[in-house]
Design a protein that fits this description.
By secondary structure, this protein is of the alpha/beta class. It has helices at residues 2-29, 35-40, 42-51, 57-95, 113-122, 141-160, 222-232, 247-253, 303-309, 311-318; strands spanning 100-108, 111-112, 169-175, 208-215, 238-245, 274-281.
């Protein structure tokens, strides 16, 4: 836009300079101050009287350029204004680009979903909502691990059970580090997190696809991966982000021959069983899957048979 403005100003400036220089010369030549000179040389006077009018050509051309520039600028102003408004609208739209949470599952020890929120509201910044009576914790280490896994499964089911079945959804995983190379994340054996146990939560027909993973004490930069993924894949309506951390998880991922983190005995674990799953969506893209989002719960005894041969299967094959 700057180059276009400079191109418009260049003829305007040249015309203005020419007009400024020649008009004084024209008026000077036609004043009485040079009349004696013209009277003394009649031949020169006649020639001059015929030619001095030619000096008006340049001012006329300059005036024409000025008028043309003014008319053109009047026509260009609305177009430039429209471009500026479009650019401002684009920036505003970019600032308003957000992801919406359309599914949420969360657990913290014995608290799930709304009960966790109620516990937080009753508490304060100086006390913990965790159970402080060690006798209420199980004694056996295996039982502790089983309870922890069940809580993680609850977060998965509460957060993702309502997304359409037979519809592939990318899963982003943010988990703590995995020191043991035997169970570490690898290209041919990716660690998907909560979604990997979908079959144990009764979500056999939910198609979770392995997406980017981060394993760190602070894996919050995975949100940048999610935004970049949506930008690079304009057809994806939503994704799943899951995360889980607990003493049972740390115990299973520890280095071989390192001290146990989960032990027999009644004690308050060093960290709680914490897990969360978010279904993050772009609102303007979600319409493509609305026809799949319904509750397929007919009176038939076998839901598996219905999903294999019934309406859900026909919709899957049709679309």
């Amino acid at each position: 836009m700057k180059n276009q403005t400079l191109r418009l100003k260049t003829p305007f400036l040249a015309a203005f300079i020419v007009l400024t220089l020649l008009l004084p010369c024209f008026f000077a030549m036609t004043t009485s101050d040079i009349s004696p000179f013209l009277e003394e040389s009649p031949m020169v006077s006649k020639k001059w009287q015929g030619w001095h009018w030619l000096l008006l050509i340049s001012p006329i051309v300059a005036a024409g350029l000025l008028g043309s520039h003014w008319i053109h600028s009047q026509k260009l102003a609305p177009a430039v204004t429209h471009q500026v408004q479009q650019a401002a609208a684009g920036k505003q739209e970019k600032r308003e680009y957000v992801l919406e949470v359309i599914g949420l599952g969360v657990t913290l020890d014995k608290y799930r979903q709304g009960k966790l929120w109620e516990a937080l509201q009753k508490g304060n910044a100086y006390t913990s909502i965790r159970e402080q009576n060690k006798d209420k914790y199980p004694w056996d280490a295996r039982e502790k691990s089983g309870i922890s896994g069940g809580r993680a499964g609850d977060a998965l089911e509460n957060g993702a059970k309502d997304i359409p079945m037979y519809f592939a959804v990318p899963v982003f995983n943010a988990d703590p580090p995995i020191p043991d190379p035997a169970v570490a994340d690898m290209p041919d054996a990716p660690v998907m997190g909560l979604a990997a146990d979908a079959i144990y939560s009764g979500m056999t027909w939910h198609l979770f696809v392995v997406g980017p993973r981060r394993f760190d004490e602070h894996p919050d930069h995975i949100l940048e991966d999610i935004f970049a993924f949506f930008d690079a894949n304009p057809d994806v309506p939503y994704i799943v982000l899951n995360s889980e951390d607990s003493m049972a998880t740390r115990h299973a991922a520890r280095l071989p021959d390192s001290p146990d983190l989960l032990k027999n005995g009644r004690y308050i674990p060093e960290m709680p069983d914490a897990s969360a799953l978010f279904v993050l969506a772009r609102r303007e893209r979600i319409d493509t899957v609305r026809k799949f989002a319904y509750d397929d719960a007919p009176p038939e005894a076998s839901v598996d048979d219905l999903n294999t041969y019934g309406v859900a299967r026909r919709l899957y094959l049709a679309y």
